[in-house]
Amino acid sequence: MILRFRLDATEEQVEELVQRLEGAGCRTRRSPEPGRAIVALLDRPPAALAAELARHPLVEEVVAPKGDLRLVHRSFHEQPTVVRAGGLEIGGPGVVVIAGPCSVEGRDFMDEVAGHCARAGAHMLRGGAYKPRTSPYSFQGFGVEGLAQLKDAGERHGLPVVSEIMDGAHLPAFLDHDVDCLQIGARNMQNFTLLKAVAAAGRPVLLKRGLAGTVEEWLYSAEYLCAFGCPQVILCERGIRTYEPATRNTLDLTILPLLRELTHLPVIVDPAHAVGVARFIPPLARAAVAAGADGITVEVHPRPEEARSDGPQALLPGELAGLVADLRVLAAVGGRGLAD
Amino acid sequence: MILRFRLDATEEQVEELVQRLEGAGCRTRRSPEPGRAIVALLDRPPAALAAELARHPLVEEVVAPKGDLRLVHRSFHEQPTVVRAGGLEIGGPGVVVIAGPCSVEGRDFMDEVAGHCARAGAHMLRGGAYKPRTSPYSFQGFGVEGLAQLKDAGERHGLPVVSEIMDGAHLPAFLDHDVDCLQIGARNMQNFTLLKAVAAAGRPVLLKRGLAGTVEEWLYSAEYLCAFGCPQVILCERGIRTYEPATRNTLDLTILPLLRELTHLPVIVDPAHAVGVARFIPPLARAAVAAGADGITVEVHPRPEEARSDGPQALLPGELAGLVADLRVLAAVGGRGLAD
Amino acid sequence: MILRFRLDATEEQVEELVQRLEGAGCRTRRSPEPGRAIVALLDRPPAALAAELARHPLVEEVVAPKGDLRLVHRSFHEQPTVVRAGGLEIGGPGVVVIAGPCSVEGRDFMDEVAGHCARAGAHMLRGGAYKPRTSPYSFQGFGVEGLAQLKDAGERHGLPVVSEIMDGAHLPAFLDHDVDCLQIGARNMQNFTLLKAVAAAGRPVLLKRGLAGTVEEWLYSAEYLCAFGCPQVILCERGIRTYEPATRNTLDLTILPLLRELTHLPVIVDPAHAVGVARFIPPLARAAVAAGADGITVEVHPRPEEARSDGPQALLPGELAGLVADLRVLAAVGGRGLAD
Amino acid sequence: MILRFRLDATEEQVEELVQRLEGAGCRTRRSPEPGRAIVALLDRPPAALAAELARHPLVEEVVAPKGDLRLVHRSFHEQPTVVRAGGLEIGGPGVVVIAGPCSVEGRDFMDEVAGHCARAGAHMLRGGAYKPRTSPYSFQGFGVEGLAQLKDAGERHGLPVVSEIMDGAHLPAFLDHDVDCLQIGARNMQNFTLLKAVAAAGRPVLLKRGLAGTVEEWLYSAEYLCAFGCPQVILCERGIRTYEPATRNTLDLTILPLLRELTHLPVIVDPAHAVGVARFIPPLARAAVAAGADGITVEVHPRPEEARSDGPQALLPGELAGLVADLRVLAAVGGRGLAD
């Protein structure tokens, strides 16, 4: 249940009602926005109190979302959430481009790629230090050393960084190296242990949709993050598993306009993991922005044939630059622009 | 197997080789394009002849597509196919917009809707006279009378028309009323009896992808049309069946860049049947064009709440006009434009 | 809406109410069962009449199924439907085994296979004369000559026959050759034109589930058959299309107990098209009977490597005999037995 | 690569070759079976050594599985693996029944349910102490106290116990309470961090298939467990996510005969999470055993309407007893029996 107060409700009045709710055993959360007071009730209030809320003079509207979604629910915010990661705004007027290699592969390499990304106009640097691999015998990433290389390259080229975290025990390393945004991978979308651990760190989180995650499950996983302390969540669509064998996955842009109504969280799109073929990525990245995405994330490698992982889906630096130029025009068509 | 002749091969030389192939029991088809001679072999040639073809001085390239695809295969044409339906070009430089009601619902109504579509900038008028309905008790369309109303409205407003055909026995009615393009619906994608019957009519065909049709199966159904006499095929993606219950279907734009490499046929997108909610359609139509579609088809109704079928997914005339304006800009970004 | 009359309602009383309903523009259908009168209303009755029915002294229960399902709905019958095809009962106490080649491949061949099937204990002979093939260049069956060969072989070995029909125009050939049961293939589950045409013939129909047909759509297709004149429908589960590439399809036995509650129609299972590998078929056929199927259909070929189609999923005659023996025991465990 | 030695190869000869491989940087694993020596190579051997192995006089067969599967590959064992958990054999001649409540809900409750399970003939007691829940606000289990209650109840009634582990940090609690088998839940099938942690404990692991896990991914997750120290893995099919909304999931029995060829690990089936409706579970449990499963796992609750989670899919104790009786007969049909 979400209480949207009247604009003229005073802070004292709101606080008093919140205290009564908490006193009745009903935990509450206040929306962080300035302006209208909005309060989510995590527990069901006693019947008498619920009835009172429904006709309370201070409450303009009581929203009762289906199921348990509260903190990510669209009505918990007046405005869409703008996530701030290392100076970059995601979900604001500017569309963002996240780019970088699949895996961090060395210090010089990261410096080279970060330079390409920055010059091409990307806004954030990605790179995997801990890699979830289907096979136990595949390259599993350089670990903490990879985080250092990623962050150094980002700093040298003025780009905040994002990297996937697979284990709560690695959190100190991510914080020590000041990774600006923590990525939860598709296979961990419902790893509730990890969600809780990462939420507690208070960093922005990029939450990928599971390989076969429903919109509802995905939003619940975002609700876990919010409920356990992290309101700075970016949703990332990355293709879903379907019956179609002609492409690796099916990029689900159909849900983009729907998500705008269900949640206030920003949504970006990763076209690369859906198609798995570099030359098919730019058209899909353009489609994502045309459908209203707040940004895209792509993989870049100057020599894809040498990549330690996912080379076939890496753009060349020049392809990235061309794509960014296209997105700049497309974003303008949609009344936005690229982020600064 | 597809033989791509050298540009300097003379017509006599090509014809002679074709005769030898036919004489050896191997049926052939000539690509309709001017310029380079391209010949598809429908049957497997005898081994000795096959070996000879592989090093034949007149043959620049022998393409052996995986499986049986030949006439729809990209290498059977130098240029993408441009389908011509009632004066409209589909698959040419201009992106096309097909619009109209789900069902034809009366003479005055069709006149009204066709006027809206024409003024909004649509290029072709759609409308169902024979409706495939899941339930035997649902409205099944006005039949032949609907075809007459559709065609009259199209003529009055200068729009060629497209309508779904469900039964080969109805072909005379479609031809009598000069329906410019025959639509094969999703549920009939693998109705091979219908494909053969419709192909024989020699009209352009709009072939919808099946509810769970693979790209391969879909192209084979297009191959049926070509093999039985209809080379003027437009593919139409309309959303596939996935595990996700939040949207009616999942619009599969992922396959668009892939289709460009697999086939020379034009591809349009029907976003409405995928999402089923009118306000979600424009973002997805924009995405389709941004991903490279040759056009879109949408449903329009001036009073959706009164529609005999699919009202919730019908755009208002004003929404259609706004969408066409957006697509004009988007198409320009992609180096194209809207059709005249 | 389905009216279940009291057991003591007289035929005159029932008839009188039916006449009033018909007089009010509400078409009705009487359940063919003896005993309790059950009447399905195909149209919605006027409000006053509906209200009267709800408390009518002759009506014991008014069932209002969700959606439009009526004639196939469980409550339209007291007892499960027993389909009778050429002397064989399907859906009765005995579990049935349908067997035969994928394609009819010649007179001697059919005689040989039919002999194997009869000796192995199968109850009905299957064989395709018209073959739905994904590619236009694949073998499309021997047509009417195949029907003759199938029927002759069946008669020689005392087996009724079933064969797929793809075109309403072929109905006279099926009836001329007295094909005992008409099969609607998976790709035609929602070929409403074919459903209507086949229904009118009044023969038993074996209706395969579509490649991605939902239970609801499948039952609606059965409702088409019933509504257009064919109450003798056998449902056939044959595997659905899922994301899993390790098997051709996924046999959906999960729906078997559900179907028992939704419909009175018999349900058989075709494990071969789901797995596509002969040696995996017997365990799945056993599973189908253990889950409560009324029968199975399998393909048999004495020399699978020579089969014109689907050889890899054909059982050898000896394997069929072993499977029938297993099913006899399994059916007994479930309190049934094999059909005579 | 898997080396299957000749039966007359001596231990010294095998050891010498293994030492050479290890010396060349190629890690190896010895199959734990007595009898024939079988060695898996985790790394690719140098080309010269690989060539030598191919024609080595001591090596009867070199198996090169597609991809990276080695330790779970069928050819790594002569015999199927029999997992031993608390005295119970899983994968041996006897089919096993695992039963218990979804969640551990209290000491007396567990004693009651365990008594029911033991008397009904179940072989192992299940119960969730840590519950993966889609919503952060749902009941998350009693944690370590739940483990104590589960184990006590199991001991009192002579049943080994299995419970889901969601966090490597909880391992000491599972070991302290001597939980006989650790369950990895469907949502954690590709939680590689958890797989590695759990593998190190050396306990038997019941690995559920992911909600949309492919057979290949599932086997790779089992390979993780084996590679990191746990060869005692039980695979558990629990229904996959498909387009069909009529049932919660689709139980995939189609893969059972396939798994027998791909791996030596035992496979059990959880029908309850697929159908989600108690009365549909027994037919599917019977189907699973008829298809060759090594066992089933079901949920039991004496008062399902009071269950803290998943009440609608819990069998009553009497229903469990009836099911066990059915399975006893079915297992006998398949030449097996129930475990003692």
- What's the number of extended β-strand segments of chain A? 15
Q: Give me the number of helical elements of chain A.
A: 11
Shape, per Cα inertia axes of chain A = elongated
Q: Kindly estimate the percentage of residues of chain A that lie in beta strands according to DSSP.
A: 15-25%
CATH architecture of the largest domain in chain A: Alpha-Beta Barrel
Largest interface here, residues on each chain?
Answer: A-B, 42 and 42 residues
Largest sheet of chain A: 8 strands, parallel, barrel
Tally of domains of chain A: 2
How would you state the average pLDDT of chain A, rounded?
95
List the helices and strands and how they pair.
4 copies of one chain form a homotetramer.
Chain A: E1 2-5, H1 11-23, E2 28-30, E3 38-41, H2 47-54, E4 59-63, E5 83-85, E6 88-90, E7 94-100, H3 107-120, E8 124-126, H4 144-156, E9 161-164, H5 171-176, E10 181-184, H6 192-199, E11 205-208, H7 215-227, E12 233-237, H8 255-262, E13 267-269, H9 272-275, H10 281-290, E14 295-299, H11 317-333, E15 337-338
Helix pairs in contact in A: 3-4, 3-11, 6-7, 10-11
